[in-house]
Amino acid sequence: MSGARLGVLVNPTAGSGRGGARGPHVLAALAARGHDVVDLTGADLHTAARHARQAVVDGLDALVVVGGDGMVHLGVNVVAETDLPLGVVAAGSGNDVARALGLPLHDVDAAVGALEAGLETGGRAIDAAVAGPPDFHAQEWFVGVLSAGFDAAVNARANQLRRPRGSGRYVRALVDRLRTFRPYGYRITLDGGVWESTGTLVAVANAPSFGGGMRIAPAARLDDGVLDVVVAGPLTRAGLVAIFPRVYSGDHVRHPACQVLRSTRVLLEASPLGPLPPETFSDGEPLGALPLQVEVRPGAVRVLTA
Questions:
Q1: Which DSSP helix (H) or strand (E) runs through 77?
Q2: CA–CA separation, 281 vs 158, rounded Å?
Q3: What is the pLDDT of residues 149-175, one digit of tens each?
Q4: pLDDT (tens digit, 9 = 90+) per residue, 17-64?
Q5: Ordered domains of the chain (ranges, CATH)
Q6: Dihedral-angle region of residue 104 (phi above 0 means left; psi in -120 to 50 means alpha; beta otherwise)
Q7: What's the Cα-to-Cα distance from 238 to each of 71, 189, 233, rounded to whole Å?
Q8: DSSP bridge partners of 10
Q9: How many CA atoms lie within 13 Å of 45's alpha carbon, on the beta-carbon side?
């Protein structure tokens, strides 16, 4: 496949610098295969997003992001509900969305091959979710997992850490956050009713994993038109320590305190039953405080895959 006009966004900090190291390789590989490559990388993610939106207006055949889940998140927020497909060269620490899509990890040549196969076939349509405060127009797209419980508090701490890489950062962050943990108060409204309780884990999942392979919602699928809402009721610190390792395999959903609820719309609110929940994250990126309305949009993003 040759001749496509491709906008490329590189996160130089992804994967402890692997994104920056692989960015030039991606640009050179695409150009060598005859594509018209537009480097959209900016000094920061805000500038890169602005470059990408302008390039969409100017005309592209696809937007390609090089990095981890944060770069996928940026790309999704540019292309969602448009005709522009998204290509992903996974070079981050977690790469949970790329893993769910079956894309190559840390392999530029294989990733370029997947991009070109997707350009030939038209790619794969996947769901995305849109989230924002109820009754407000400001909204954010995500394709992975929205964290709104202790998982969000751990995410916030993990983002402050530089070592270790991958899911090991979440273990270290977990230990830090456990010192002051108390179950939060939630009221969650779904298609089928209301869940109101003090809670420990609350995740709205479009994809099965976050945090570098932690299978928070093992049955979640990117193209089933529904969100998996994983909730765990009140747990002691000891109970949380016991259940947390089971998230890596997805076996935590068998714990009596856990439920997996399925819904196309989810309203997350704080409840006076417990302390205020932490700030939320989606695809590992800060999203904001509750209340939040989340809705799945089937087929909202087209991804270039083999």
A1: helix 69-79
A2: 12
A3: 988 988 788 878 877 665 577 778 878
A4: 455 577 899 999 999 999 999 999 877 778 888 888 888 888 999 999
A5: 5-124 (3.40.50.10330), 131-299 (2.60.200.40)
A6: beta
A7: 35, 29, 14
A8: 66
A9: 17
